Amino acid sequence: MKIFRYNILFLLLFTAVIHSQVEDATEQNSFGKGVKFYQNLLNFSSGKSKITRLDAFVMVPYSSIQFVKSEKGFVGNFSITVSIFDESKEKLITEKSWNETLEAKDFNETNSKDRYSLTLKSFYLSPAKYFIRTAVDDKESNSEFTKETMEKVRDFSNSVSISDIMLLSKRTEEEGKNKIVPNISGNVALQKDGLPVFYEIYSNFPKKLNIEYVIKDKKKNSIFTEKQLKTIDTGKTQIFYTIKDSTFSLGLYYLDIYLKDSADKEIASSERSFFSRWVGIPSTITDLDKAIDQLIYIASSKEIDFIKDAKTVEEKLKRYLAFWKKLDPTPQTEDNEVFDEYYRRIEYANEHFSHYVEGWKTDRGMVFILLGAPDNVDRHPFDLDSKPYEIWEYYNLNQSFTFVDETGFGDYRLITPLTGDLYRFRR
Prior knowledge:
alpha+beta; 7 helices; about 40% strand; Immunoglobulin-like; 5-stranded antiparallel sheet
């Protein structure tokens, strides 16, 4: 077991991970260099008939940008472009692009996870579905990271309607005016004084409403409910509200806000997802039970069962983190490079190898998670005398692996014999 663990640690730390497609070694160094950022797209009424204001919040952490030495410390430069297309993705409707400059006094500040740039751009659109692409380009590293999403721009023409929900990190009041800091990442783990939110209600007449706040778990089961009686004005009513007594274990959650009349009949509603993740846990992990299942390639059945057999969620998380702490190559620091790399490979496998099962469960996913990117991939998708197949070559390991698409639907199966300690936990 110790030899196996040593080999896994070495492979996770020193084998490369690729960007975009599994290709040759020249592609490998670009993976993970793109700028990581967070984005919120929120719908609000513009005050004009059949026109909705779509607010695009973009948050770029300092740690995502490459800084260079300057006279006053360090400086980083990047640009942001938000492009909005029609539902077909063919027609560009509108686009905004702008430049940002970050300044840091010392090198530690450039890597700080607590420092970030937050910008807002508003778009005025007719209610419909749009394809939205946001790109952040780091000028110094010449790298780009993008997010693409299909967004439904809502219609607020009903007599009573509710905007999207904005999660808040902080809210203060100065001279009678509210100052807010949006929670763009959606992580609420560090918010100890409840869950603060902001939203707007639009009405054609004054009205008393029963407002119901419901928090649901990942399976959409209700775990928390509270109600508020509110008198709203004609036009726009802004609501700041903090849901008290709300504590969240690791995982994905949903907040639903329902507007109801005096007979408790629902008039309108809005939903917002969020998650709880502690410092030191990879950002891709939002489901603890699934993350434990994904240990299959690095943990024994006994170790996995020990974690799962915990009596409470808190104890389960404690055992899970203790498992990864034993593998931490730099226990004196906050970051666990092996922990991060393992789940980064799982995320990549899910993005590129999924078909009717998640990518991490596939044979290509298994090999990629354990060994990282191959040095070379020899693809044969259209050979007349054979089914589609790929050969992955690892020069430093002196190994190659052949995958055959048995069904023609991307179901690549590993036909190379599984031998040695490396695959002892394959189920």
